[in-house]
């Protein structure tokens, strides 16, 4: 009776909380073992165990020594969708749904009966009579028999179907993109590692795709439409690549997608699929009355599976995609190892610009502009940058400015150029007085559109006690029309300060920017084909074009010059047709600081 009171008190004292499976198992086994150990009143102990066994929310199957079920409680029958009596006579392992589950139960039963090792809780699939299969948490243990030393196996199972499905759902969410349902970057990384883990002669292909101008769709039609477009892109990519060469598509981020292929194929076959995908994307998707078609840029890498790791493959795909975008978008680019080797050298160069500027590797290089009516008189001195690289030697600005644009060093270089140019101008004015030429600085695009341009110029002029008219600032069509900056406002303020503004032009369209935007420009510099056309002679059409430009410049009260003039004969032709000043190799290709001082002194005298 003491045993009954003790177990009744234990089971009753749950404080309104359902007991966990582990505790119920312990309680039931405790009752059974006490029933065996307690000598008097075996019938009462068995009755107590029978009631607990029948009322237990955990499914229980009692078996003989061979593992054949001799009794099953109501909870187990309910869990498996059948009457408990229908389970009698079945062997415990036969409850497993798949061969894998059957094997796990069989092995657990064997270890229990031969080694006396109870099975730890395992999650596996059991057959359900109506629903097919159900996930359960199963435990195999034993109970002592009537004879001393005898034991019988017991299977206890708890419903884990909802928990398992929730875990599967959470796992799916962790590795899939919520918007498109495609694998996400994490899942794609795992798939890539798996694809590269094998050996043999198979090929692997990685394709990076970016939707061109997606921001226009998102901002113009709303984020909701943008999301639907991304779903449409995902579906089109899946329709092209899924099922071909073990193809899988993933969304990496924003409007970026990736495709992974593995098998026996050629670069041409992969390119054909990519071209098909790009054509599919152009076909409009109709949303809210709008037919929306998108273009995409693609970077393609194809190589043997065993040729390198995932980092190299990912980097190659990024480089190929970047080249496709640089080439004009809406196209694909195949990774070229030789081109990549050359680009690595360029990018390494771009990466050390900041250090080179700090270490004094940059210097000013000058090109004089002379008056064509009197070439002994300097009209201005154009200042530019030269990089004296410790390994590559002297580099002109066109070799490093594009790299500076990529690495964000354009503005530091432009600031340094302006500061050093005005310092040199102050030195010339101190030494040569009124005979000192103006300095002309060509603004890099990123500096021309910088909102702090006016402040920067004024600070440098004040620092060197220079009048603003001693500085000429040169820009071009690209900077004037750049929507990112406030070039027109900046130039208006600089003109009010007294700085001379110069526009480089190549034809009538560039010249007409001045009246269209009311640019306070005082000088224009002819450049390119219009100047090159007069290098070796005078064609009537070329001369007529030049004369039209000169005539229009005079109407606008502009002084007109030229750059890239190679010979005195070419300079003379330009002079005859109204060009006032020029620079180029007919005067000097370039001059260092000391050389330009000598040049200014010679012209001043």
Automatic annotation (TrEMBL):
Entries under SUPFAM superfamilies matching the protein: EAL domain-like (SSF141868), Nucleotide cyclase (SSF55073), PYP-like sensor domain (PAS domain) (SSF55785)
One Pfam family per UniProt: EAL
Source organism, top-level taxon: Bacteria
Domain (EAL): residue spans on this chain: 346-604
GGDEF domain: residues covered: 202-337
PAS domain span: 45-90
Name of the protein: GGDEF domain-containing protein
Species annotation: Amycolatopsis azurea DSM 43854
């Amino acid at each position: 009776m003491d045993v009954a009171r003790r177990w009744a008190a234990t089971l009753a004292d749950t404080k309104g909380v359902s007991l966990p499976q582990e505790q119920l198992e312990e309680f039931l086994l405790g009752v059974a073992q006490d029933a065996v150990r307690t000598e008097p009143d075996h019938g009462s102990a068995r009755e107590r165990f029978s009631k607990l066994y029948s009322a237990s929310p955990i499914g229980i199957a009692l078996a003989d020594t061979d593992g054949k079920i001799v009794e099953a409680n109501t909870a187990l029958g309910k869990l498996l969708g059948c009457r408990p009596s229908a389970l009698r006579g079945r062997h415990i392992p036969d409850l497993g749904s798949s061969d894998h589950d059957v094997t796990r139960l069989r092995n657990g039963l064997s270890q229990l009966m031969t080694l006396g090792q109870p099975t730890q809780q395992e999650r596996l699939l059991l057959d359900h009579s109506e629903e097919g299969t159900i996930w359960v948490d199963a435990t195999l243990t034993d109970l002592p028999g009537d004879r001393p030393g005898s034991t019988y196996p017991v299977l206890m199972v708890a419903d884990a179907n909802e928990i398992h499905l929730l875990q599967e759902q959470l796992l799916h969410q962790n590795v899939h993109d919520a918007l498109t349902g495609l694998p996400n970057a994490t899942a794609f990384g795992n798939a890539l590692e798996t694809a590269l883990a094998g050996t043999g002669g198979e090929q692997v292909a990685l394709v990076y795709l970016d939707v061109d101008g997606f921001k226009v769709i998102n901002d113009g039609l709303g984020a909701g439409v943008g999301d639907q477009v991304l779903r449409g892109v995902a579906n089109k990519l899946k329709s092209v690549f899924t099922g071909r060469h073990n193809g899988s598509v993933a969304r990496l981020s924003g409007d970026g997608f990736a495709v992974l292929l593995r098998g026996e194929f050629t670069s041409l076959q992969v390119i054909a699929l990519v071209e098909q995908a790009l054509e599919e994307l152009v076909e409009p998707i109709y949303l809210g009355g709008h037919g929306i078609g998108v273009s995409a840029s693609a970077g393609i890498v194809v190589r043997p599976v065993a040729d390198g790791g995932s980092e190299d493959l990912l980097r190659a795909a990024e480089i190929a995609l970047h080249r496709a975008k640089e080439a004009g978008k809406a196209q694909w680019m195949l990774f070229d190892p030789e081109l990549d080797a050359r680009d690595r050298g360029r990018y390494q160069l771009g990466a050390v610009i900041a250090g080179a500027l700090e270490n004094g590797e940059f210097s000013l290089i000058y090109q004089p502009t002379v008056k064509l009516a009197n070439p002994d008189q300097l009209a201005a001195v154009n200042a530019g940058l030269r990089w004296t690289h410790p390994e590559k030697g002297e580099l002109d600005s066109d070799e490093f400015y594009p790299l500076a644009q990529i690495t964000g060093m354009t503005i530091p270089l432009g600031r340094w150029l302006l500061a050093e140019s005005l310092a040199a101008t102050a030195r010339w004015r101190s030494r040569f007085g009124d005979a000192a030429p103006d300095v002309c600085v060509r603004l890099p695009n990123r500096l021309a559109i910088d909102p702090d341009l006016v402040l920067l110029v004024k600070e440098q002029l004040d620092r060197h006690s220079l009048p603003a008219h001693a500085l000429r600032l040169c820009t071009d069509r690209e900077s004037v029309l750049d929507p990112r900056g406030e070039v027109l406002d900046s130039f208006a303020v600089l003109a009010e300060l007294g700085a001379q503004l110069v526009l480089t032009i190549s034809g009538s369209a560039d010249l007409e920017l001045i009246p269209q935007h009311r640019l306070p420009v005082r000088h224009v510099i002819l450049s390119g084909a219009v100047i090159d056309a007069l290098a070796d002679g005078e064609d009537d059409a070329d001369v007529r074009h030049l004369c039209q430009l000169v005539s229009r410049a005079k109407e606008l009260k502009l002084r007109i010059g030229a750059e890239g003039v190679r010979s005195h004969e070419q300079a003379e032709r330009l002079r005859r047709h109204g060009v006032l000043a020029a620079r180029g190799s007919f005067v000097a290709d370039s001059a260092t600081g000391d050389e330009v001082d000598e040049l200014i002194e010679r012209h001043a005298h």
